[in-house]
Write a structure and sequence with these properties.
Blueprint (H helix, E strand, L loop, with lengths): L22 E4 L4 E4 L2 E2 H7 L2 H10 L5 H13 L5 H7 L8 H14 L9 H25 L14 H10 L5 H14 L6 H11 L4 H12 L7 H15 L3 H10 L17 H17 L3 H14 L2 H5 L6 H11 L7 H22 L26
Antiparallel strand pairs: 1-2, 2-3
Helix pairs in contact: 1-8, 2-17, 3-6, 5-6, 5-10, 6-7, 6-17, 7-8, 8-16, 8-17, 9-10, 9-17, 10-17, 11-16, 13-14, 13-16
Length: 384
């Protein structure tokens, strides 16, 4: 589908900008596929490391390949001491996503392959970035609290290491599995804003670090990855109001409020990831003995499904809605939600960057000028 030169597609709506073998999003029926595998099948039967391998190799690994791959990831998780020292110099009030954006940029300065855009170099950088992302995020989580960063352990997965490096405790297997499934669900999602950003930067023959820094900046926005943080703040607002969910909802609707986590640019059916995360959020809430936040979220969902405004527009909970409950129940600070999203999506971003290089062409869309024409410059002393 292409737009007429005189009728621009706002937000590139309906415009196909690339061919990909990485994922297929079918928003009308609520289906998401990673390289041929349904997301529900993967979430139930695979690990995050297997998903990363799938996106980089377009097939799932054998056990021997997975073992070797996990060893490679483990060997690349530690951060250079110089980078840790620089992280400690950043203002501690910096939002974790802003910190992550700067940390990744700094990391590129210590990578001798940073400016090498060969396939071999890009594969090595993809491995390094994916392995170090949990270490960077967890380290910043501790540094901003005045604590020393904790190094990774060889015996833990990416999900397990993230939890261990964040609080220094032996990670709970239930929490590890919940984080691992969260990472699987957010690894890849077609030509989303941050992935498109990464591919645009790559199309200029830009290096992988530049593309990832740009992608992080794109993900940070509340209309993209930052929506999970906004969703949790919505639930806080409901509880703090003291009104009860139904009365709060009534007043919010009367005021024309939008609800973070409800609705999606692509999905006109239930986001398949949201359904899985809803089940996980319910299970974690029940096992923790604190169902408050799940109950609020579920009641709001019920109210929207009985509201003609949401039903007629096919507005359902998206991946951010229940993922906020999952992460908060696991004790992840609210402002760390989106960095954890980046921890997952780094695998998808790097896969797209490598795919873009296979047939790289500068992404340079047109624009429609709608301003005045034929103006003449008036001498400055005569301008009113």
């Amino acid at each position: 589908m292409t737009a007429s030169p005189n009728i621009p597609a706002k937000g590139l709506d309906g415009i196909t900008v690339a061919s990909t073998k990485l994922s297929k999003v079918e928003g009308d029926i609520g289906r998401l596929t990673y390289s041929g595998y349904d997301i529900k099948d993967l979430a139930l039967n695979a690990t995050f490391e297997e998903i990363v391998y799938l996106l980089w190799h377009l097939r799932l690994p054998t056990q021997a390949e997975l073992n070797a791959f996990k060893t490679q990831l483990s060997e690349n998780m530690a951060l250079p001491p110089e980078l840790c020292r620089l992280m400690k110099s950043l203002p501690t009030q910096t939002h974790p996503m802003a910190a992550l954006r700067s940390i990744v940029s700094l990391a590129g300065m210590y990578d001798p392959l940073a400016e090498d855009n060969s396939l071999a170099a890009n594969r090595k950088k993809a491995l390094t970035l994916t392995a170090r992302m949990p270490t960077m995020i967890a380290a910043w989580g501790r540094i901003r609290e005045g604590k020393e960063p904790i190094g990774p352990r060889e015996d833990l997965s990416i999900a397990g290491n993230f939890l261990y490096m964040l609080d220094g405790k032996e990670p709970d297997p239930v929490a590890v599995r919940a984080i691992d499934r969260y990472l699987i669900l957010l690894t890849e999602h077609g030509m989303n804003a941050s992935t498109f950003t990464a591919r645009v930067v790559t199309s200029t023959d830009g290096d992988m670090y530049s593309a990832i820094v740009a992608a992080i900046g794109s993900l940070k926005g509340p209309k993209h990855g930052g929506a999970n943080e906004q969703a949790m703040r919505l639930f806080f607002e409901v509880e703090d109001s003291g009104l009860g969910v139904e009365e709060w909802y009534k007043q919010a609707r009367a005021a024309g409020r939008r609800f973070a986590g409800i609705g999606h640019r692509i999905y006109k059916a239930l986001d398949p990831r949201a359904g899985i995360l809803r089940d996980d959020a319910r299970a974690l809430a029940q096992s923790s003995g604190n169902t408050l936040w799940f109950d609020i979220a579920y009641k709001i969902e019920e109210l929207t499904r009985a509201d003609a405004y949401f039903v007629e527009r096919n507005l359902y909970p998206n991946v951010d809605y229940y993922s906020a409950i999952v992460l908060y129940t696991l004790g992840i600070p609210t402002d760390m939600f989106t960095p954890l999203f980046a921890l997952s999506r780094i695998a998808g971003w790097t896969a797209h960057i490598i795919e873009q290089w296979e047939d790289n062409r500068l992404i340079r869309p047109e624009s429609e000028y709608i301003g005045p024409m034929g103006l003449s410059v008036i001498p400055i002393e005569q301008r009113g």
